[in-house]
Amino acid sequence: MKARIVVVLALALVLGGLLQAAISHLPFDNTNHSQRIRECLNNLERGRNELVAEVSTMELMIDGDGSNVSHFEAVRVKYGFPDTTVAKAAFEELAALKGKLDSDASTSNVKAAMLQAFNKFRN
């Protein structure tokens, strides 16, 4: 009898864990606080998507393999960088951040990369 109870309890725990892991939507009422959560998540999603798209656009503008600052003349012109050295550095900064945010692999120092990019691009 004890063995049967243990098996039933173990099965209940496994199924309970599976059911909990299967939740794909977290419902909540439309309150001021829940709207702030939704807005925050929307901003994060939009920002990541726009970063991925913008870095892809910059990649198309690079005239060559990107190893030389002279390859970044179109990036300089389109984005208003003062010279191609700055254009290359900006691209590399954004591409590195994109690499951290657009990956399912284990990634370290994501917050540091975000803060670094935020600070480098502040006016």
Characteristic terms for this protein:
single chain, 123 residues, mainly alpha, 70% helix, 0% strand
**Globular, elongated, flat, extended or rod-shaped: what is the shape?**
elongated
Beta strand % = under 5%
Low-confidence stretches are none
Order of helices and strands: HHHHH
Word description of this protein:
By secondary structure, this protein is mainly alpha-helical. The chain is built from five helices and no strands. The protein has one domain. Helix 3 packs across helix 4. It is elongated and about 55 Å long.
Topology (SSEs and partners):
Layout: H1 2-21, H2 32-61, H3 73-79, H4 84-101, H5 110-120
Helix pairs in contact: 2-4, 3-4, 4-5
Short description, anyone?
The chain has 123 residues and is an all-alpha fold.
